[in-house]
Amino acid sequence: MTGGAGGAGGAGADGAGPDGAAGGHDDAAELEAIRATYPTLTWDSAERIDEGWDHVVMICRGCSGADAHGHRELVFRFPADDQALAQLPTEIAVLDHLAGRVDAALPHYSHVPAHGRFAGYPLVRGQRLTPELFDSLPATERTTLAAQLGALLAALHIQDTSAPPIDRVPHSYQPENLDFVRGIVHNNLPAVFTDAEMATAREICDEVGALQSTLLPRVLLHNDVYVRHLYWDRGQAAGQAAGGLGRAGGVSGPGRLGGPGRLGGPGRLGLIDFTDMCLGDPAVDFAELYEYGPRFVEDVLAHYTGRADETFLDRAWTYQRFAALYMIAGHLYYGVESWEHARSAFDRCRSPRRPRA
């Protein structure tokens, strides 16, 4: 979902759209900025991805020249607003800090120009972890994936928030997002929702408001862990399943990440777009995993070594419901997402009782 279960609206700018297509915008300005900053960098093809709320992304393939730094595929991210621009140095520093502390593939910036207007990293291998891809994986691979995601979230959540660079990460955006959504609920939703749906929307806002007034753990959150930011590099596992050696890198879709692949193993998780990272309730990072079904959420939690009390998954479900309502608000106010997609997400999250495996 766009915006994260508890964060500001980032819609997965590092990834491709659902159909793998880039926007139709003239990409000359971004490419010229790259050429001006890295004059010896050349590429065979470039693709502009503009599905996100806060970044424009250029994916350059077939890179060569001294300024390529040995990388054949590079992702360049251009902040689209002042907040994203101001956040970029912190994102780079945090990802550099995490590089030796997690096993999953995360963006690791290799191209950080002094002017600070954009930055780039090598594309991470893998396919976007759609529910369809997840459902097609063998049970053993789904277990491996859950274990890797549980370990990654634990590694993020145990970081010392008082030490650099994590101490530069902002507090949760959720209070201001709740104010925004409540405004949409009051002013815009009555025209498109039934009375019963309006009651559900108000209930969701009230539940989130109650959680905000509760003393909860405050940890480093990715804050937008969902389908557009999760990737799975099957490595040889895909080739073995098909009776041969698979191609590394999940080349069927353009929205791949940066960092080494892991051939010969059971697969490797990737997570991109840390733009919306903040300090908040760890349950937020579990919220949108419900798109893969409640069993997966419970499997990830089983491999999670962070703090999780008996209310943890109930809170995660509340944040999932809020994420779906935020998607409705985002469609009505910003015009992002389709109404059908936002509506489907909201309908899936109508019940106040979290689904169980």
Characterize this entry briefly.
With 357 residues, the protein is an alpha+beta fold.
Secondary structure topology:
Blueprint: H1 28-37, E1 45-49, E2 55-61, E3 73-79, H2 82-98, E4 119-122, E5 127-128, H3 131-136, H4 139-157, H5 174-187, H6 195-212, E6 219-221, E7 230-233, H7 236-241, E8 268-271, E9 278-280, H8 284-287, H9 294-302, H10 312-334, H11 339-348
Question: Can you walk me through this structure?
Answer:
With 357 residues, the chain is an alpha+beta fold. It folds into two domains: 28-122, Phosphorylase Kinase, domain 1, CATH 3.30.200.20; 127-348, Aminoglycoside 3'-phosphotransferase, Chain: A, domain 2 (Alpha-Beta Complex), CATH 3.90.1200.10. It is 38% helix and 11% strand. It contains eleven helices and nine strands. It has helices at 28-37, 82-98, 131-136, 139-157, 174-187, 195-212, 236-241, 284-287, 294-302, 312-334, 339-348, and strands at residues 45-49, 55-61, 73-79, 119-122, 127-128, 219-221, 230-233, 268-271, 278-280. The strands form three sheets. The protein has a four-stranded antiparallel beta sheet with strand order 1-2-3-4. A three-stranded antiparallel beta sheet has the order 5-7-8, with helices on one face. Helix 4 (139-157) crosses helix 9, helix 6 crosses helix 10 and helix 10 packs antiparallel against helix 11. The radius of gyration is 20 Å and the shape is globular. The two termini are 22 Å apart. The model is unreliable at 7-24 and 239-264 (pLDDT under 50).
